[in-house]
Amino acid sequence: LADTPALRVLRLDDCQGLLELPDCLGRLEQLETLELTRCIRLRQLRRASVAGLGRLEVLAMASCEQLTKLTGGLGLLSSLASLEISDCRALPELPGGMGGLGRLTSLGAAGLAGLEEIPGDAMQGFDALVDLDLSFCDKLKTLPSSVGSLSSLRRLSLAGCRMMVRLPSAVCRLGALQDLDFTGCAALESLPSNLGAFTSLRALNLSRCLGLRSLPETISRLSALQVLNLTRCALLVEIPMTLTVITSLQMLNLSGCAQFRGTLSSLECLATVVLGYS
């Protein structure tokens, strides 16, 4: 590697014998893409191996099953736009000190089975982040209040986070958010009372939120909402009548809401309503 200083793309996917990255990798100053997907014996990403990769834009490390540590040196990757660490099931936490990733637009961290909480500083400095995927992080119970600083975020997926109990009210500061997915958050009992602050939200998926009993009245302020999915919210009895003022709403799915007793007669704007069982 030391003899290829002009290298821009390095793909080491499925190198199942790779235990660590050499320090000389950090001297590839022209490198833009580093792919390490399914390097199942890779245990850590050391600072020395990435410290000089100032032009790196894509770092893909999905399904590195034995990865237990990400170096704080990630914050030195000032050009990084995409970081993919999904299904690194042994990774216990997201590292702090990533505030230097001001150009990061996509963070894929789905399926981190050991992730119980996210440090507050792990969500700071991501001014350009558009897509955050934390789905199927089975032990994750909440998000840090610093998530409210992700001013460019458009998509947030928490699908399958079955231990997710609550969300900080700060999450409602995400004014650019368009797609919010809580599918399968079975422990979630309520949504923030200031939910209406999501004025750009187009799709809200609450399917299989088995503990959800009600929606806040402020949902009526979601002036851009087009899709509301409440499939199999088994304890949901009614929805706020203030939904009638959301003229953009086109699809409402209430299939499998066995306790629902509300009325839909005033929702003339809807193009699609799904009822019954699924």
Structural notes for this entry:
The strands form two sheets. This protein has a twelve-stranded parallel beta sheet, with no helix packed on it. A two-stranded parallel ribbon has the order 3-5. It has one helix at residues 47-50, and strands at residues 9-11, 33-35, 44-45, 58-60, 69-70, 82-84, 106-108, 131-133, 155-157, 179-181, 203-205, 227-229, 251-253, 272-274. It has 278 residues and is mainly beta. 1% of the residues lie in helices and 14% in strands. It is elongated and about 70 Å long.
Record field, number of beta strands: 14
Structural class: mainly beta
Q: What Rg do the Cα atoms give?
A: 21 Å
Percent of residues in β-strands: 5-15%
The SSE string, one letter per element, is EEEHEEEEEEEEEEE
Mean pLDDT across the residues is 90
**Shape type:** elongated
**What's the helix count?**
1
Distance between the termini: 55 Å
> How would you characterize the largest beta sheet?
12 strands, parallel
- The quaternary structure here is single chain
- Strands of the largest sheet, in order across it? 1-2-4-6-7-8-9-10-11-12-13-14
Low-confidence stretches: none
**Percent range of helical residues:** under 10%
Topology:
Layout lengths: L8 E3 L21 E3 L8 E2 L1 H4 L7 E3 L8 E2 L11 E3 L21 E3 L22 E3 L21 E3 L21 E3 L21 E3 L21 E3 L21 E3 L18 E3 L4
Parallel strand pairs: 1-2, 2-4, 3-5, 4-6, 6-7, 7-8, 8-9, 9-10, 10-11, 11-12, 12-13, 13-14
Task: Provide a short characterization of the protein structure.
By secondary structure, this protein is mainly beta. It has one helix at residues 47-50, and strands at 9-11, 33-35, 44-45, 58-60, 69-70, 82-84, 106-108, 131-133, 155-157, 179-181, 203-205, 227-229, 251-253, 272-274.
